[in-house]
Amino acid sequence: MISQDERDILLNLLWAERVIKKYPNIHNNILNFNKNFPIETPFKIKIYNYFNNIEYPIKCYACSNHVKFFNGSYSKFCSNKCSNKDKDLLGKRNETMMNRYGKLSMISNPDIKHKIKISFEKNHGVSNISELAKLPETKIKISKTKLSYSKDKRVIINTKRSTTNLDKWGVDNISKNKNIKKITKENNIKKWGIEYPIMLDVIKEKSKQTSLEKYGVNHISKNENFRKKYKITNDLNYNKYLENGTSLFNCDKGHTFSISSDIYNHRKLLYLKICTICNPLNNKYSSQHEEISNFLKELDIKHTINDRNIIPKELDIYIPEYNIAIEFNGLYWHSELYKDKKYHLNKTNMCNNLGIRLIHIFEDDWIYRKDICKSIILNSINKIENKIYARKCCIKEINDNKIVRSFLDKNHIQGFCSSSIKLGLFYNNELVSLMTFGYRGTNGKKEYELIRFCSLLNTSVIGGSSKLFKYFVNNYEYDELISYSDLSMFDGSLYEKLGFKYSHLSNPNYYWVVDGIRKHRFNYNKKKLIKHGYDPSKTENEIMHELGYYKIWGCGQKKWIY
Questions:
Q1: Contact in structure between 558 and 485 (CB atoms under 8 Å)
Q2: How do strand 447-455 and strand 421-427 relate by DSSP bridges?
Q3: Bridge partners (DSSP) listed for residue 453
Q4: What is the DSSP pairing of strand 386-389 with strand 459-462?
């Protein structure tokens, strides 16, 4: 519990810096107290949590989502939808409506209806929303809105949920978050003395009794309605249910295997091979290696797997016809825990010395940007079928950042990056190539950086980069033009074609692996960590390692000058 002295101090403090400088002991207490909250939590909120003895993120009264900190305190509900479920709140709302309007709904009051009618006639020339919807211009707006919805609303909801979880927690499902898992285990150990309550005989027996009463079986997974709901029995390869809680399936290759519903659904979600013989349960990355290999097989590209005959180290995939090798980098096994700073660079240099281009595909890119990875592979082996000639395209300067963000996120492996000049190549009014530039203005020179260039997925715009670059050179004044290429995926040949000169290769760059996704180091530099309330006497590495995060190294970037 917070002491009275600490309470008095915190009541008079407004800024985190004053706590850090004047009261280091209290500062450390606050950080330790807030260990269950995300790093990004502002220090003011951490003080509030410490002051009010809030050890864990507050959950919504109606659901399990976390509520927001708003106007100096935590909200009771996470959304209006949840607040509408609260009986006490609904009772007060209904009472207010009856007192003010004599109806449970404001819209049912004749006076309100009359006011709405007058407003509609004044603003739209019609008396209600039904007549407004019949107007031609309104129909166009409605039809455009409907286009953004899929017939299968469940797919939209699941996608939105996954996106929200990725933004908030760095994983598509909150249960995959390491901090949440850790907190859950700690709470269970405090309460039950074990990591999972289901391990207790009392809980097991109670679960069986509940399942018998509700479903007529001692475990819900044995209930056919439940199994149909999770589409296990609808799978074409489904065989039968086994008493040990697993199901039998028949593999396309003739294997008969058993798998639990949890692992089955997880593999389905990630589009991994379901078969536990083709893709063993203890082989974490074999399925993803196999996915890349199968992708090449579909294209009838001959390649070797786990080849040790080319260089002293193993090449995951080698395509001799094109002198291309592909390295799959699992974020854990290829991190600083197992690989040194120059591991990926040295492997790349070994290949370069033999005239082989090595493409590094990182695990999170393959999971979340698989289509872009495939497009890069297709482009490297000249297997892009959709070809457009730049001479048939027109150049437009784009001012709408939404268009640029959408195009880069869908077609560039590094996604969106802000820029001042955005040049688009359009074919039949469709954006097919994009090149962006940023103004630097360093040392009194007018310097620009070519920040991004990409084309539509699985599309080769022949002469596109030259046409866009030539437009920039002819229409903008500059003293120097620079750019960078990531050695882990690209050889920089594009810049040579545009007339750039190679300057140097930077030291291998690194990312922090936060909950299964690489995060740029700038997001976690010491200045930002201190701003979030961490000890200024410690280094970036010390703070991040204490939080359980680790680095993964790239190959560095080539600098090019025009």
A1: yes
A2: unpaired
A3: 435
A4: parallel
Query: What residues contact residue 132 under an 8 Å CB cut-off, 6+ apart?
Result: 120, 124, 126, 138
Q: Is residue 116 part of a domain?
A: yes
The DSSP output letter for 59 is B
Report residue 237 as tokens. 């390869």
List CB contacts of 104: < 8 A, sequence separation 6 or more: 94, 97, 98
pLDDT at 143: 42
Which pLDDT score, from 0 to 100, does residue 2 have? 56
Assess if residue 104 is contained within a domain: yes
The letter for the amino acid at 243 is E
Task: For residue 284, give the nearest of 520, 549, 516 by alpha carbon.
Answer: 516
Could you give the CA distance from residue 74 to residue 78 in angstroms, rounded to a whole number?
10
Mean pLDDT of 171-200: 77
Give CA separation, 44 vs 373, 464, 546, in Å. Answer: 41, 50, 22
- pLDDT surpasses 80 at 490: yes
Task: Examine residue 134 and state whether it is found in any structural domain, yes or no.
Answer: yes
Q: How far apart are CA 542 and CA 523, in angstroms?
A: 16
Rg (CA), the chain: 29
pLDDT surpassing 50 at residue 309: yes
Encode pLDDT of 506-559 as tens digits: 999 999 988 778 988 888 888 888 888 788 888 898 888 888 788 999 999 999
What are the Cα distances from residue 386, in Å, to 120, 380, 443? 50, 14, 44
* Predicted confidence band of residue 446 (pLDDT cuts 50, 70, 90): confident
Most distant CA pair in the chain, distance: 85
**Residues with Cβ < 8 Å from 360, sequence gap 6 or more?**
327, 329, 344, 348, 488, 489, 554, 555
Tell me the residue range of the domain where 91 lies: 87-147
Q: DSSP letters of 415-464? A: -----SEEEEEEETTEEEEEEEEEE---TT--EEEEEEEEESTTEEEETH
Structural domain count of the chain? 1
For residue 339, tell me if it sits in a domain: no
3-class SS of residue 327? strand
Distances (CA, A) of 385 to 378, 381, 382: 9, 11, 9
Closest CA relative to residue 521, chosen from 507, 535, 502: 507
Residue with tokens 């996915």: 291
Which one-letter amino acid corresponds to residue 545? Answer: H
Q: Are 404 and 452 in contact (CB under 8 A)?
A: no
Which amino acid is present at 219? H
pLDDT of 379 higher than 60: yes
Taking CA atoms, 300 is separated from 214, 294, 297, 321, 383, in Å, by 53, 9, 5, 12, 11
Q: Torsion angle, CA of 300/304/305/311, rounded to 10 degrees?
A: -140
